[in-house]
Hints:
By secondary structure, the chain is mainly β. It has one domain: Roll (Hypothetical protein YwqG fold), CATH 2.30.320. It contains no helices and 12 strands. The strands form 2 sheets. A 10-stranded antiparallel β-sheet has the order 6-5-4-2-8-1-9-10-11-12, with no helix packed on it. A hairpin with an 8-residue loop joins strand 5 and strand 6. It is globular and about 40 Å long.
Amino acid sequence: MAIGIRVKKAPANYDLGASKFFGTPTVPVSWAQDFSDDEIFFCQLRLSDIALFDKDNKLPHSGYLYFFMHTADGERGMKADVRLLEGEPELAIDDFNTAVEGYECFNDAYLMEFYETDESECCTRLFGIPSDWNYEDRHPRLLMQFDPLDNEMGFLDHIDGFLYFFFVENDRNLELISLHVEYS
């Protein structure tokens, strides 16, 4: 079982705490100075939004999960910075991606809509089996698969393939997530 993600461009006055790609991240005040100069905001998940679909309880069902990316080494060298917040965020950081060269345009928010899907569907989704994974018999444990051609956001849309976020140790350790760009 996997959780599919559809996106639509957010209206002007949307809930800043919504599950979304890009836009304005809402974070704890204590994180405000924790971000590096090469880091972009990729997405945030309000975990209560996926609770109905996360039947195996792979993630907590309250709080927020954030996906940031270090971009200093370019597309192939991107590194994941995935963070879990058990409470509610207090701070909205406008134009988070503006200062990172090459990513300045990714400030519009795209709201997420979740649905139940097959674990191997070629789409943007949480969990399941990585699409187009041909390296070994046993695939890495997938947290998120992002299909740049599955939406109208323009992020990495020159890639005919996927952006994967993999669990490194176990499905409960959200501090160690690896990022992999896969070309088809």
